[in-house]
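Protocol step 4 of 5: obtain the predicted structure for the target chain.
Materials: sequence only (see below). No template structures provided, no constraints applied. The aim of this step is simply to have a reference model before the mutagenesis design in step 5. Sequence pasted as it appears in the construct record:
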Amino acid sequence: MRKIIFAVIFTTLSFTAIAQTNITEQYFKADSLLLSGRLPEAYNIYKEILPKIDKNDTLYNYVVWYFVQVTSILEDDRQLHEDYTNSLKYSLEALKLIQDNKENFDKEFADREPWMVKNVIVAYFGLEKLDEAKKYRDILYKGYKERNLPDVINEYFNFDFFKVGDKNVWGYEWYPELPDDRVSTSFTKIVYYVYSTKPDGTDNEQLYRLHVLMFHQDKKETEFDYILEKQQDVDNSKVCGSYYSCTYKKEIDYKKLRKDIKEIVKNNTQPDTKRITTWKK
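Step 4 output (structure tokens):
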């Protein structure tokens, strides 16, 4: 009987050792693929082996780290190609990896969470699922109010991205809310940055900015709170102008805003007004 029990234990341990050896080999294979730029293949291996590794195994954190890395790169690539479905898939997957494992890493790793939340927002905006985007947007606003967001994203966040012809358009939103003083102060809630592109589709030169700017009048006198303004740096001057057909209430209609931005960029629509501010040399 003891021989039978020993044989069973030995066989079990052998299978375990073989399985562990196979996982380790797969891990090194994924690393090699990652270094050679074969990211989808590396991603598939990390995704396959992670659930098979004990969380107390030192290999586990290594796989998590590189799995987050490769998933983030794939998400960024899909976003740049406006493949919002896969961008969303990768960003949600990376977000869960970070949330489930951030206690095992340093603060720098944990600080990636709000940045990945931002990527989820961009993907949902691209899919025009604005209600879903708002759920994640609220997460960032909560972090802002509790003052626990990392640098840069604690001031504003990228919430939108799309291409119009050969131009990249990036939408950024600031956290502060519309002030009561609509006359003596200036306030911008959202800025869309318009870039020319390099042959690989990445940003080249910033061409101009489209600001969702607080309208400078007593709020009781107008039916809107924001007006769209174009700003462009030319030599040592800033050229500005407003679009009076592009106005928004305090609760911004993002669908209308996106439509307005796309039409302006596509048609190179010029503002209704023009003013020039020259900088002192």
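Step 4 remarks: The chain has two domains: 1-153, 155-281. The longest strand covers residues 203-214.
Proceed to step 5.
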